[in-house]
Amino acid sequence: MNVALGLEVPELEAGREHARNAGLPRIEVSTAQGKFLQLLVEISGATRVLEIGTLGGYSTSWLARGVGARGKVVSCEFEPLHASVARENLERAGLSDRVEIKLGAAQGTLERLIGSRSAPFDLIFIDADKRNNVVYLERAVRLSRSGTVLVLDNVIRAGKILDDPAQHGLQEADLRGVQESLRWLRDEPRVSATALQTVGSKGWDGFALARVL
After folding, report:
1. Domain 2-212: assigned CATH number
2. Cα(119)–Cα(137) distance, rounded to whole angstroms?
3. Can you tell me the distance from the alpha carbon of 11 to that of 93, in angstroms, rounded to the nearest whole number?
4. How far apart are CA 92 and CA 103, in angstroms?
5. What SS3 state is found at 212?
6. CA-to-CA distance for 158 and 133, rounded, in angstroms?
7. Which of 78, 121, 125, 177 has a CA that sits 20 to 30 A from residue 4's CA?
8. What is the dihedral of CA 32, 207, 169, 201, to 10 degrees?
9. pLDDT in tens, 56-80
């Protein structure tokens, strides 16, 4: 599909390889998913984007391509190495002027943004530690306006989402976090949500998509 649609961007693929060489985990979005994020930004007209979970800056780069030269992406990252690699990749891709990486625990960063009365974001992409998904969603809504798009990654997890999390050992907390986040989206009156399943180079997974009302 990447070849058929001409999705790969050499500068971004070089950044992905740089992240791998630096020892970062290979858990970034796929190329097709990255392009999907860029299109979501462009279709929604978002110029101010918040990302929770930078990793090596691969998804960040797609989001930055979407906001355009006058847009801004604020990305939260806990690991200093990840943030450093991401900054290098964004510089290489010519996108560093569109992105601000905030280093530290995302919960604290989000609280500071709320406390500073930050301007609302147009689109918020959440792809971090799954056990804190509900916390991130709650903060995201507070940093939104009516019409803001929320995107939550890894909500299908090869169907494990339907299982008792206790069956999955080390993944238990993450699975519980995903299940709780889907219930939150279902019950939260301030949002309207659905889920989109994906199959591709990363296997069977999907996104939850929501609009703030």
Report:
1. 3.40.50.150
2. 17
3. 5
4. 20
5. strand
6. 18
7. 125
8. -20
9. 999 999 999 999 999 999 999 999 9
| Phi, psi for residue 94 in degrees, rounded to 5 | 70, 30
Q: 29-43, 89-103, 133-147, 171-185: lowest mean pLDDT where?
A: 171-185
Contact 112, 121 (CB under 8 A): no
18/59 Cα distance (integer angstroms): 14
**pTM of this structure:** 0.95
Question: Of 147, 143, 153, nearest to 44 (Cα)?
Answer: 147
Separation between Cα atoms, residue 49 and residue 51, nearest integer Å: 7
Nearest to 137 by CA among 210, 196, 201, 37: 210
Question: Which single residue is written with the structure tokens 């929770």?
Answer: 52
Residue 31's DSSP bridge partners are: none
Interacting residues of 143 by C-beta distance below 8 A, sequence separation 6+: 50, 110, 113, 114, 118, 120, 121, 124
Place of tokens 């993450």: 174
**Contact between residue 70 and residue 47 where contact means Cβ atoms under 8 Å apart:** yes
Give me the residue label for tokens 């997974």: 205
- Compute the distance between CA of residue 85 and CA of residue 75 in angstroms, rounded to an integer: 13
For residue 38, give both structure tokens: 């860029």
Token pair recorded at residue 113: 């943004």
Q: Decide if 180 contacts 155 (C-beta within 8 A).
A: no
